[in-house]
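Progress note, sequence design subtask.
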């Protein structure tokens, strides 16, 4: 394993220092999936959900079974006991043959740590854009469309992009899920999107605290029915959304505190 870096940045492939050609293979083939998590005291909120995401995607993309015990061992190897870091787990296959893509293959595990992420707190102004990800239920490495639309939104003076279907039904943000507050409960969009780990944990926390949640179609022309909107990403609830296109939302700190409390109530799971 590489020696610790002051910024917490390290990388391993199958538990060892990767070779340049191996990293180049991933960059050139660009076929795989990943999950990102925030590690605190060798624990992660929703760690079992991250594992399930990786196991399910490995089966769907490669036709093989991910060795979870091997993965746990490699994560323990790269993460120090008292460290707070961001960890990305990428699963791909050096054995993948483009002439035999139908064949099940063994997979390789790329781990990368970086300094613990500081969540953004300033509310976002987002622009809606028609875009539907390929296999939206999978957190795959095909991120060109996400960054392209995010970049275009920034060039137009917005903070980020919000994806909608061709019919204007809201699905997800560039690299985040979205939720809405109608004054009494949280409403999740129904359109196909990545089932984010933070969203799943927040939903469980809200229900445990007596706050109702519901999934329903949300179209751009229905935004007036919601008081607040907020984002969720890896290990972070928020920031809130100030506006979608020309529609403004309230910024209510008590709602943000309610969401943060419900999420924080979810326990750290040992790696």
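Output:
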């Amino acid at each position: 394993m590489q020696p610790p870096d002051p910024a917490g940045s390290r990388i391993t492939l199958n538990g060892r220092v990767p070779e340049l050609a191996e990293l180049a293979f991933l960059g050139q083939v660009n076929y795989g999936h990943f999950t990102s998590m925030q590690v605190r005291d060798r624990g992660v909120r929703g760690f079992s959900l991250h594992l399930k995401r990786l196991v399910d995607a490995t089966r769907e993309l490669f036709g093989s079974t991910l060795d979870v015990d091997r993965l746990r061992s490699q994560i323990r190897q790269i993460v120090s006991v008292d460290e707070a870091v961001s960890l990305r787990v990428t699963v791909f296959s050096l054995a993948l043959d483009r002439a035999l893509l139908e064949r099940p293959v063994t997979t390789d595990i790329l781990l990368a740590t970086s300094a613990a992420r500081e969540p953004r707190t300033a509310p976002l102004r987002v622009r809606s854009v028609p875009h539907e990800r390929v296999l939206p239920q999978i957190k795959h490495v095909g991120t060109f469309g996400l960054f392209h639309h995010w970049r275009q939104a920034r060039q137009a003076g917005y903070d980020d992009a919000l994806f909608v279907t061709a019919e204007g039904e809201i699905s997800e943000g560039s690299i985040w899920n979205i939720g809405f507050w109608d004054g009494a409960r949280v409403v999740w969009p129904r359109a196909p999107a990545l089932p984010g780990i933070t969203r799943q944990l927040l939903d469980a926390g809200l229900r445990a605290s007596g706050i109702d949640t519901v999934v329903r179609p949300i179209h751009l022309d229905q935004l007036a029915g919601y008081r607040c909107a907020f984002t969720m990403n890896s290990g972070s609830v928020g920031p809130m959304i100030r506006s979608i296109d020309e529609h403004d939302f309230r910024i209510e700190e008590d709602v943000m505190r309610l969401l943060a409390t419900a999420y924080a109530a979810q326990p750290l799971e040992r790696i």
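The chain has a mean pLDDT of 95. Work on this subtask will continue into the next period as scheduled.
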